Amino acid sequence: MQDFIKIHSEDNVAVALKPLAAGTFIETGDTAVTLLEDIPQGHKFALTDIPAGSSVMKYGCAIGAAKENIAAGAWIHTHNLKTGLGDLLTYSYDKQDISLAKTDDRTFMGYRRPDGKVGVRNEIWIIPTVGCVNKIASAIERASQKYITGSIDEVAAFPHPYGCSQMGDDQEYTRTILADLINHPNAGGVLVLGLGCENSNVQELKRYIGEYDERRVKFLVAQESEDEMEDSMALIEELAEYAGTFHREPISCSELIIGMKCGGSDGLSGITANPTVGAFSDMLVSKGGTTILTEVPEMFGAETLLMNRCKDEETFEKTVELINDFKNYFTSHNQTIYENPSPGNKKGGISTLEDKSLGCVQKSGSAEVVDVLKYGEPVQTKGLNLLSAPGNDLVASTALAASGAHIVLFTTGRGTPFACPVPTMKIATNTALSEKKNNWIDFNCGVLVEGTDMDTLKNQFFDFVIEVASGKKVKSEEAGFHDMAIFKRGVTL
Fold first, then answer.
1. I want to staple 20 with a disulfide (CB 3.0 to 4.6 A). Which of 39, 218, 231, 348 is the partner?
2. Residue 373, CA atoms < 13 Å, CB-side half-sphere
3. 200 three-state secondary structure
4. Bridge-partner residues for 409, per DSSP?
């Protein structure tokens, strides 16, 4: 295993890939330093003297400025590094010429729906219109496990606390996300469970759902039913009969839509797991497939790298709007835009939001940005898309699923057990996490600094994603976890 890594030739820091003791002699290229203090795994140390106020460089970009004079060999973290981020910026479009060669197609075993859409799971979903019927939805889920036979992969309820007492964007977000999930092709059958008096009632929600197959989507309003459990179970039986007619068949991976997210990041996220996901994204896009990158606040400080990869001026302007809309969201609530790295992030070696963001956008690979999606907007264009959603793990992952992602790739340096409505694959940044939390982690990218090269790892990872798309359950699915969360921005009545 390597002891440290200097990521970019212009960097004036390196990252410890394992704990390094004070007095360790470090040599890279023409630079040699002796560590002045212990450096934890994932943390940075100075390769040269850095005067106070000067830029600290990582990934070839500034991740902040030195608060004080930093000596070569010193530990660099929150105590001596401050963010350089401010509020709204003026951006210019400096388009990069991007050439991503087409590569041979691959197939996975998926489900073809009558409307032409494709699913990687054939599940029955129970979706409440309002939190008041959450417990009924969960009771229906428990009573319906007997229908997991043949080609039916799962029966799952998605409780949430919304659907009533909401105003403005909040109400629109709830209706949009619920409708997106009802229309998601991973569900072979859907029971929409309403109460009857809520704002987002069944009749209102139907306006957002649009045309639907009456064999695939059933509705029940609890206040109109004498025995909602009995009536619901009768509908579930009908849905199971219909969903059971679908079977896996070979489908081109050009029809795969993959969401990309990170959480519980550490100092190795931008070195191992996120670049591997980025390499995967490039591979899938080169085969005609689609990827979606979100968590906008974790683009702050790295947004120009994405803007300059936009396919045209219109997409660039949409990306500027994406960034500034979120900055305005922060400032309208009297919050600073750069107080992002969590305690876990900092413990793992991330010092500023720029540090976090530059690692985060590694998941986007090198493909051009073809479109920018509003929150809840379904993906329309094949290739790399950006999606408006916050950094919160559950909210952002649900947003990816709602926009059409069949699977969410979730990189993590700390570990997390959660799931979203679609298979949520946990990808470790370091081997220690993969070994410690084997019940959470699906794939280990820590081997990238232990002798495995990127070409080998990205191909192994692509194969693994194809396996999951073809029916292999990820750890959270094996545990029976199904979560969803909706973005809340406004007033609750």
1. 39
2. 28
3. coil
4. 260, 425
CA separation for the pair 191, 219 (Å, rounded): 6
In the three-class reduction of DSSP (H, G, I as helix; E, B as strand; rest coil), residue 323 is classed as helix
Provide the residue type at 372 as one letter: V
Nearest to 473 by CA among 151, 224, 120, 207: 120
Strand ranges of the sheet holding 118-119, from the earlier edge strand across to the other edge: 118-119, 107-112, 249-252
Q: In whole angstroms, what is the distance from residue 401 CA to residue 484 CA?
A: 9
Please name the residues in contact with 289: beta carbons below 8 A apart, sequence gap of 6 or more: 253, 254, 255, 256, 257, 258, 382
pLDDT score for 119: 98
Residue 405: how many other CB atoms lie within 10 Å = 33
Question: Taking the chain (493 residues) in consecutive chunks of 10 residues, what is each chunk's mean pLDDT?
Answer: 91 96 94 96 96 96 96 97 84 91 97 97 98 98 97 98 93 97 98 96 97 98 98 98 98 98 93 97 98 94 95 97 92 78 88 92 97 98 97 97 98 96 98 97 96 97 98 97 92 80
Name the token pair of 280.
């995967």
Query: Tokens 């939390």 identify what position?
Result: 437
> Which tokens sit at 148?
């997991």
Pairing of strands 187-194, 217-221: parallel
Burial of 297 (0-12, 13-18, 19+ CB in 10 A): buried
Q: How far apart are CA 424 and CA 240, in angstroms?
A: 24
User: Residue 2's pLDDT is what?
Assistant: 83
Give yes or no for a contact between 353 and 287, defined as CB atoms under 8 angstroms apart: no
Whole-number Å distance between alpha carbons of 270 and 294: 16
Query: Inter-axis angle of helices 273-286 and 454-469, to 10 degrees?
Result: 70
Q: Are 415 and 427 in contact (CB under 8 A)?
A: no
**154 Cβ partners below 8 Å, 6+ apart?**
121, 123, 124, 148, 477, 482
Q: What is the pLDDT of residue 403?
A: 98
Q: What is the distance between the alpha carbons of residues 70 and 137, in angstroms, rounded to a whole number?
A: 57
- State the DSSP code for 26: E
Which H or E run contains 44?
Answer: strand 44-46
Please name the amino acid found at residue 367. A
**173: Cβ contacts below 8 Å, ≥ 6 apart:** 375, 376, 486, 487, 488, 489
Residues ≥6 apart with Cβ < 8 Å to 392: 485
Give the residue from 44, 213, 6 showing the smallest Cα distance to 114: 213
Q: One-letter amino acid identity for 296?
A: V
Separation between Cα atoms, residue 133 and residue 139, nearest integer Å: 10
In a 3-state reduction of DSSP, which class is residue 210?
Answer: coil
How does strand 123-128 pair with strand 187-194?
parallel
CB 406 within 8 Å of CB 300: no
Length in residues, the chain = 493
